[in-house]
Design brief:
Length: about 210
DNA sequence: CACCAGGCAAGTA
DNA sequence: TACTTGCATGGT
C-alpha cells in the first residue's frame, strides 16, 4: 500500500465526501455518457443525454434503429457530434455482434478480455473503455483522465513521460483492489481538478492537498 | 477575444 | 515511435 496515495484519498474523501459516480439512470446510459464526454464539459453531455431521452433514443435498440443524422442532431450540445454519433454506432455494432445487444452478457465476460475488445472499437480509447468497465459494469479497473495526470504531476507522483498504463498501474499496484475505492478515488480526483487544478492556472489557494506538494 | 472541458483517430516524419 | 491536427459545442 502506497501511503501517499492512501493519504490523499482519505483527505479528499474527508473534504468532499462520496461522489456517487457515475451520474446516470442505467448502465447503458453510462456507456453512452462515457463516449459523449470525451474532451467535453459534463454539463453539455447532460443536455445531449436529455435530448436522447426525449427522442427515445437512449437504449441499444433506439440507437440501433435511428439514422446517424438523427443521433447527431440529438447529441449536438456535447460537441464533435458527427464524430460521436459514428462512435455510438460503432459501439452498438460491437455490442450486437459480440454480445447480442445484451449488457448482461457483456458484463459476464472477463474484464481484461473485454477491455481488449472495447479498445478495438473505433472511438473507444483507454479512458472510455475503463470508464465503461468501472462505472457501468462495476469491474475493478482504475480510470485515468487528464485531471488524474495533472494532479499526479503537480504532486510529483509521476514523471511527465508517464503513459496511461503507467498511471493506471500506479494506482492498481498500490491501493486496495476494490471497485468502490476505484470509483470514489477517480471521481474525487475529478472533483478536485474541477475546483483547483486548471490547465494553465493551478488554483492552489484553498486546495485540500496544499500541504501535500 | 482566448481558453477550457471527465479523448480519440488519422496523418506525417 | 513521437508529434500534430481535426473534430465542435457551450461556459467563463
Amino acid at each position: 500500500m502506497n501511503k501517499r496515495l492512501t493519504r490523499i484519498y482519505r483527505k479528499l474523501y474527508a473534504v468532499f465526501g462520496p461522489q456517487c459516480w457515475w451520474p446516470a439512470d442505467t448502465p447503458f446510459e453510462v456507456m453512452v455518457g462515457a463516449i459523449l464526454t470525451q474532451n467535453t464539459n459534463w454539463g453539455n453531455v447532460e443536455k445531449a443525454v436529455a435530448n436522447l431521452k426525449k427522442e427515445k433514443l437512449l437504449s441499444p435498440r433506439g440507437l440501433l434503429r435511428a439514422p446517424l443524422s438523427k443521433i447527431a442532431r440529438s447529441i449536438r450540445p456535447s460537441g464533435y457530434y458527427n464524430i460521436k454519433a459514428g462512435r455510438l454506432k460503432e459501439f452498438l455494432g460491437f455490442l450486437c455482434k459480440s454480445y447480442q445487444g445484451s449488457i448482461k452478457k457483456m458484463a459476464s465476460q472477463d474484464h481484461w478480455q473485454l477491455r481488449r475488445q472495447l479498445l478495438a472499437v473505433k472511438g473507444i480509447g483507454e479512458e472510455t473503455a475503463d470508464s465503461i468497465l468501472l462505472y457501468s459494469l462495476s469491474k475493478p479497473v482504475f480510470v485515468v483522465d487528464a485531471y488524474t495526470r495533472r494532479i499526479l504531476l503537480r504532486h510529483r507522483l509521476i514523471k511527465k513521460e508517464a503513459g496511461y498504463q503507467d498511471i493506471q498501474n500506479l494506482f492498481m499496484e498500490n491501493i486496495k483492489n476494490r471497485v468502490k475505492l476505484f470509483n470514489e478515488y477517480h471521481a474525487l480526483l475529478v472533483r478536485l481538478g474541477k475546483e483547483f487544478c486548471f490547465k494553465n492556472n493551478p488554483r492552489c489557494r484553498g486546495c485540500p492537498l496544499e500541504d501535500e506538494r
